[in-house]
Write a structure and sequence with these properties.
The structure is a single chain. The protein contains twelve helices and eleven strands. Strands 3, 4, 5, 6, 9, 10 and 11 form a seven-stranded mixed β-sheet that branches. Helices cover 45% and strands 20% of the residues. The chain is an alpha/beta fold and 298 residues long. Strand 3, helix 5 and strand 4 form a beta-alpha-beta unit. Among the domains are: 66 residues, Winged helix-like DNA-binding domain superfamily/Winged helix DNA-binding domain (Arc Repressor Mutant, subunit A, Orthogonal Bundle); 102 residues, D-Maltodextrin-Binding Protein, domain 2, CATH 3.40.190.10. Helix 1 crosses helix 2 and helix 1 crosses helix 4.
C-alpha cells in the first residue's frame, strides 16, 4: 500500500502536538487542509487513525502508521546525505522509549552527542519500555535485560546500580530496632509510579517475603532523591545520583552493600540501525561513562 507523504506528515504532526491547529501551524497549511488529509488517509487504510479530543491521540493503527512515517523520514534523510542530494540543514526525527532514570543519567548526554536529530521521547517504567518497540510505536528503546525484541538489534549497555537509601532521621524513626520484614512492611517507601517494582523486588531479595508497604508516589527522578533526603520515605535510587548525598551524610543506605543491579540494553529497529548509527554510538559512549560495564563483576 502506497500512502501519500503529505497525509503521513499530517498524521505525525497531529500526534506530536495533540491538535489539528498545531499540526496546521507546523506544516504551514490550514486546519481544514489537515482535516482533509486525515480523512483521505483514513479512507485509504479503512480505519480510524485519530481519537478526536483534547489532546488528540492516535488509535493503534494511527500510532503504527505515524511510526512508519517517521521511519521513512529517517531513511530518506540518510539516503539524501549519502547521495549529497540535499545540502539543506534539517533534522531527522526519531521516537525513543526509555525510563525516566535513564533520561536523567545518560540519555540527555547521548542526545547532545547524536548530531542533527529531533527527539520524541516516550518515558515509561524500565520494565515496560520494550513494549513500545513490540507494538511498533517507537524506533528505538533502552530496555531491561538482554532479550532482543523481534526485528531489532540489541546492544548491551551495562548495569545501572540502585541503592536503597533514605535519610538518617527516617532510619532512626522506622528502623531503630533493625531492618526486617516487619519494619519494612510498616515504613513508607517511595515509588516512581504504579509500574515501579524496584522497591518490592529489593524487599523480596532481602527478606524472602512479598510485602506491600505504605507508598508515596513520586514520579520524578530528581524529586525521588530529594524526597529520600527529606525523609519522606526510602527508595531505590541510582547510585550515581545519591553518592554525593551519602558522602555528606544527608542519605544513608537502608542496608549497606545490598544494591539492586539492572542490566540495560539499547534496542533499535534493524532496518533503521544503519541510519541511527550515530545515535547508537552516542548512547554507547554515554553509557560507558555512567554504567557498570557489561560482564564486569564487583
Amino acid at each position: 500500500m502506497i500512502l501519500d507523504p503529505h497525509h503521513l506528515s499530517a498524521l505525525a504532526a497531529i500526534l506530536r502536538h495533540g491538535s489539528f491547529e498545531a499540526a496546521a501551524a507546523e506544516l504551514s497549511v490550514t486546519p481544514s487542509a489537515i482535516s482533509q488529509r486525515i480523512k483521505a488517509l483514513e479512507d485509504r487504510v479503512g480505519a480510524a487513525l485519530i481519537h478526536r479530543g483534547t489532546p488528540c491521540t492516535g488509535t493503534p493503527a494511527g500510532l503504527r502508521i505515524a511510526r512508519h512515517a517517521e521511519d521513512i523520514g529517517i531513511l530518506e534523510a540518510k539516503l539524501a546525505r549519502e547521495l549529497t542530494l540535499d545540502q539543506r540543514e534539517g533534522s531527522t526525527r526519531v521516537r525513543v522509549a526509555l525510563p525516566a532514570d535513564i533520561l536523567e543519567i545518560l540519555f540527555i548526554d547521548a542526545m547532545a552527542q547524536a548530531g542533527d536529530i529531533l527527539f520524541d521521547l516516550v518515558i515509561d517504567d524500565q520494565d515496560h519500555s520494550a513494549e513500545w518497540l513490540r507494538r511498533g510505536e517507537v524506533s528505538a528503546a533502552i530496555t531491561v535485560g538482554g532479550q532482543a525484541v523481534t526485528g531489532c538489534d540489541a546492544i548491551a549497555l551495562g548495569t545501572l546500580r540502585y541503592l536503597p537509601t533514605t535519610s538518617p532521621d527516617f532510619m532512626q524513626r522506622w528502623f531503630s530496632d533493625g531492618v526486617s520484614a516487619r519494619s519494612l512492611s510498616r515504613a513508607p517507601c517511595l515509588t516512581f509510579n504504579r509500574k515501579d517494582n524496584l522497591q518490592k523486588t529489593w524487599i523480596t531479595a532481602q527478606t524472602g517475603s512479598r510485602l506491600s508497604p505504605p507508598t508515596q508516589f513520586m514520579p520524578s527522578t530528581n524529586g525521588f532523591v530529594e524526597a529520600s533526603i527529606a525523609g519522606l520515605g526510602w527508595g531505590m535510587n541510582p547510585e550515581s545520583l545519591v553518592r554525593p548525598a551519602i558522602a555528606d551524610g544527608r542519605l544513608c543506605e537502608v542496608i549497606p552493600d545490598t544494591p539492586l543491579d539492572v542490566e540495560l540494553t539499547w534496542q533499535v529497529g534493524r532496518v533503521l540501525a544503519p541510519a541511527l548509527a550515530p545515535l547508537t554510538k552516542a548512547v554507547r559512549r554515554a553509557a560507558a561513562q555512567t554504567l557498570i560495564a557489561p560482564n564486569r563483576s564487583d
